[in-house]
Amino acid sequence: MVTHRSGRPSWLSWSNYFIGVGGLVLGLCFGVCAALIAGPEHQVAAIALGVAAGICVLPVLFRALGELRFLVRLTLLGIVFALLLPALAVSGEVRDWAAERWEQACKQA
């Protein structure tokens, strides 16, 4: 995994996406081969190729779910910010509450 000066991994590095695309291609190839040889005489081989396809695709699915979770959290953050913006502009109590939450979030990160 590619790291930057901050020590955190780069989620947009080329190697991660190359591995993801490679996994999808291998999974597709194994899946197509399993479908082509599926028949009464080749059931075990078709099942084995189907399992191999699943093993190749599984890391890509986990990665996609992780990125979707990040996008959902980012969208929710934007909605909450848009809803709280008028209250932040008017109320001092809400500003104090938001400042405390921000400090807590910075300490956890």
Strand proportion: under 5%
Low-confidence stretches: none
Overall structural domain count: 1
Separate helix tally: 3
User: What global shape is seen?
Assistant: rod-shaped
Overall strand count:
0
| Secondary-structure content class | mainly alpha
Elements, N to C (H/E): HHH
Characterize the biggest β-sheet. Answer: none
**What does the average pLDDT come to?**
82
Distance between the amino and carboxyl termini: 21 Å
In helices, the fraction of residues equals over 70%
- Rg (C-alpha, Å): 23 Å
Keywords: Membrane, Transmembrane, Transmembrane helix
Transmembrane segments: 17-37, 44-64, 70-91
Outline:
This protein is an all-alpha fold. The chain is 82% helix and 0% strand. Keywords: Membrane, Transmembrane, Transmembrane helix.
Keywords:
transmembrane, mainly alpha, transmembrane helix, membrane
Task: Please describe what this structure looks like.
Keywords: Membrane, Transmembrane, Transmembrane helix. With 109 residues, the protein is mainly alpha-helical. Helix content is 82%, strand content 0%. The chain has one domain (14-108). The longest helix has 48 residues, at 43-90. The radius of gyration is 23 Å and the shape is rod-shaped. The mean pLDDT is 82.
Write the layout of secondary structure elements.
Layout: H1 14-37, H2 43-90, H3 92-108
Helix pairs in contact: 1-2, 2-3
